[in-house]
Amino acid sequence: MLKGFHHVAIICSDYPRSKAFYTDVLGFSIIDENYREARDSYKCDLGLPDGSQIELFSFPGAPQRPSRPEAQGLRHLAFKVDNLDEVINHLTNKRVECEPVRTDEYTGKRFTFFQDPDGLPLELYEL
């Protein structure tokens, strides 16, 4: 049956800005990057050390998707971290604002939210 997630696909509004955010700020490595002339679109496969991947797409004229107030559909993407405070400090130094840290009422684990350049809600979840 299912083994886990292979990737999450994200369509961005500004490809160079989002590519820099996911690589320079969040530390994803570029696995593969292709310009698809027929679609006037980039597709960039980004990876983390555990094999998690993001497919970053650019599509000219793609419509915006509301994220606030919370809309139906994918709510957010959560990243697991060992030290929440360390990652928050890293993001703050990169001028990325994080929400106040909260504690999951069911698991007792700490977490916070921040956004990518297009306002996609991203979560840091401390293991």
Please outline what is shown here.
The chain has 127 residues and is an alpha/beta fold. Helices cover 17% and strands 36% of the residues.
How many individual β-strands? 8
Structural class: alpha/beta
| Count of helix runs | 2
Quaternary organisation: single chain
CATH superfamily of the largest domain: 2,3-Dihydroxybiphenyl 1,2-Dioxygenase, domain 1
User: How many separate domains?
Assistant: 2
The CATH C-level name of the largest domain is Alpha Beta
Largest sheet: 4 strands, mixed
Order of helices and strands: EHEEEEHEEE
Strand content: 35-45%
**What is the CATH-assigned architecture of the largest domain?**
Roll
Classify the helix fraction into a percent range: 10-25%
Give structural notes:
This protein is an alpha/beta fold and 127 residues long. It has helices at residues 15-25, 84-93, and strands at 7-12, 29-36, 41-47, 53-58, 77-81, 102-103, 110-115, 121-126. It has a four-stranded mixed β-sheet, with helices on one face. Strands 5-8-7-6 form a four-stranded mixed β-sheet, with no helix packed on it. It holds the Pfam family Glyoxalase. Residues 4-127 form the VOC domain.
Task: List the main descriptive attributes of the protein structure presented here.
2 domains, 2,3-Dihydroxybiphenyl 1,2-Dioxygenase, domain 1
Please write out the topology.
Layout: E1 7-12, H1 15-25, E2 29-36, E3 41-47, E4 53-58, E5 77-81, H2 84-93, E6 102-103, E7 110-115, E8 121-126
Parallel strand pairs: 1-4, 5-8
Antiparallel strand pairs: 2-3, 3-4, 6-7, 7-8
